[in-house]
């Protein structure tokens, strides 16, 4: 699993970085698809994140061969059966847009947990790929472990949202810092405890 990735040294969290996971040409193909489908997060909100996420989001079309190939590539790299994956999501952050501090897991016992986790269970691993480099800003910050990851075209970032005992790991708290200049494109892939659907 995660061959060629660097583990960020921290006892608190399993976080891996793999530079050049995706070639620049492949990144550009996905950027074009995000541009074709993006919508403001405020309107068609996922999971009630409107106040936290001001970027534009989109579900990528799983029937598109380019998207399907990337999805398969990520699942193979993570060594997780594709059935456990949520659909690939794209994000575009323009100047001033961000995703404030949050965790990707759902608070156990909270209302969202019942709603979004009844069938597939909790989120397990997160994988994300930076598809470009904004001119300024847009880093991903893990405050608890004091780690800032800079966007770099094709760089994959993956972390385990759970601790060794399987409970959600608060040290995964992270934020997408504001883009100061240019635009930032990423895709995110979340995996679940059980098949997605
Ligand atoms: O864009 C980023 O740097 C982080 C995105 C993120 O945290 C998410 O989509 O859950
Ligand atoms: Fe996140």
TrEMBL record:
What keywords sit in the KW lines?
Dioxygenase, Iron, Metal-binding, Oxidoreductase, Vitamin C
Give the organism, scientific name: Sphingosinicella soli
Q: Does the keyword Transcription apply?
A: no
Q: Where is the Fe2OG dioxygenase domain?
A: 79-193
Q: What is this protein called?
A: Prolyl 4-hydroxylase
- Per the record's keyword annotation, is Acyltransferase included, yes or no? no
Which molecular function terms from Gene Ontology are attached? iron ion binding; L-ascorbic acid binding; procollagen-proline 4-dioxygenase activity
Q: Which residues cross the membrane?
A: none
Task: List the EC numbers from the record.
Answer: 1.14.11.2
State the superkingdom: Bacteria
Q: Which positions are tagged coiled coil?
A: none
Which cofactors does the annotated protein need, by name?
L-ascorbate
Q: What Pfam families does its record include?
A: 2OG-FeII_Oxy_3
């Amino acid at each position: 699993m995660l061959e060629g990735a660097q583990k960020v040294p921290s006892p608190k969290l399993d976080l891996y970085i793999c530079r050049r996971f995706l070639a620049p040409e492949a990144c550009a193909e996905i950027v074009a698809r995000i541009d074709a489908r993006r919508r403001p997060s405020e309107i068609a909100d996922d999971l009630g994140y409107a106040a936290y996420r001001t970027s534009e989001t989109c579900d990528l079309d799983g029937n598109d061969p380019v998207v399907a190939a990337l999805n398969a590539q990520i699942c193979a790299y993570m060594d997780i059966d594709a059935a456990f994956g949520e659909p690939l999501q794209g994000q575009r952050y323009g100047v001033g847009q961000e995703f404030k501090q949050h965790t990707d897991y759902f608070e156990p016992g909270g209302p969202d947990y019942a709603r979004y986790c009844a069938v597939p269970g909790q989120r397990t691993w997160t994988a994300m790929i930076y598809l470009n480099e904004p001119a300024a800003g847009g880093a991903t910050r893990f405050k608890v472990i004091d780690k800032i990851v800079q966007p770099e075209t094709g760089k994959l970032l993956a972390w385990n949202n759970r601790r060794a005992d399987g409970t959600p790991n608060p040290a995964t708290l992270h934020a997408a810092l504001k883009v100061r200049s240019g635009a930032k494109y990423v895709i995110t892939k979340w995996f679940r405890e059980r098949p997605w659907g």
